[in-house]
Amino acid sequence: MFEAPPRLDRSVALDALRAVLAIWVLFTHLVPAANTLIGGYPDLEAVRRFVVQVFDSDGETHPAVLCFIVLSGYCIHRNGLRLSRSNVKAYAIRRVFRIVPTYLLGSILGWLVYEWLFHGHKAQLEVLTAVDKPSLVNLLRKLSCLSSWAEGWWFTSRQGNDPIMTVGVEIWLYAIYGLVFIICRRIGHTTHVVGLLGVAWIASFVVYQRLGMRFTWQWWQNGSVMAFLPYWWIGALCASEPVGAFISRWTGAWVAAWLPLSVWSMSGHAMTAGVIECKKVLFGLACAAAIRGLDKVRARRFLGLAFLGKASYSIYALHFPLIFLFLVAGVPLWPTAALVVAIGVAFYLSVEHPLDQFGRRLARRRDHSDAASGAGQ
Fold first, then answer.
1. 3-class state of residue 141 by DSSP
2. At what angle do helices 63-78 and 225-238 cross, to 10 degrees?
3. Cβ contacts of residue 134 below 8 Å, gap of 6+?
4. What is the reported pTM?
5. Domain spans of the chain, in order of start
6. Cβ partners under 8 Å of residue 178, min gap 6
7. 104-138 per-position pLDDT tens digit
8. How far apart are the C-alpha atoms of 45 and 59, rounded to whole Å?
């Protein structure tokens, strides 16, 4: 897994996919909120409800978020750590500057909007989201990302930007990837180490389900490191051989196995938590195969979407509080969507991208410094 040379080119098609997923998440939250506060969008709400029935009728992780997680694992390992050339400290610097500033600023924006709505528009706020009193302590809990491990903290840490909690999970997934690489570099046995992650995921699921610990389905599906772990690694493994070829070869099988489970769930039949998780795994495998296939596409017709995809993280991180802000102010659905996307793109160009580039420069210096010190030993 860590032996093959990395892919250092950027995929236009995968950037386009990021744009589609970000817009999907945006409208998933915007449509019901706009219908509640303004009304007049029954057709869009009907479409949203149908999509929910198809993909997550049992309250599981939103399919766009699940695909985002698989895509994250794929892209990180696609050009990530390798035994022959990698500097873990440089990797950490790149990841920190790539994800943490936007996470911090998005969380703070959510808290400020939430504070304003709580004290001035509480009635509207209560019909949009779960309401807890704004608290700096809860904001600090969110910024610490510890709610990804502590279920009780997750509910009180949302504070005006629920979706960004998944970014806190992703920060941990980046750290776990680096730790797995360090272990594999020192002791080898990559297959065994990655296999242990799968065992840990199954064990944690069993513990929450069977051994009497307080289990909250909503937290497991939307904010738990252990719940997201296998899907991120499905993506990472799909970026390497021979696992990627195997996943792609059996694309039809993953879809064929997922489809009857989805139809069964749509028809109102109850499914156990274990079956629901198997359904998610099948969907994750199908996503990984699709991502691998898109990575081979070189068509320039995706360039417009690809630019939007580069800003997808900023759009995702900011969209939830901005939706509330504009809808409460009386802005209709379509102008709200346009404003959220425009602000996300502006944030990407002025904040996220410059900080990302700064982190990359620091990482290169670290690479060169460590290489020079190594050559002098």
1. helix
2. 50
3. 111, 114, 115, 118, 159, 160
4. 0.91
5. 12-375
6. 81, 88, 91, 92, 95
7. 999 999 899 888 887 777 776 766 666 577 788 88
8. 17
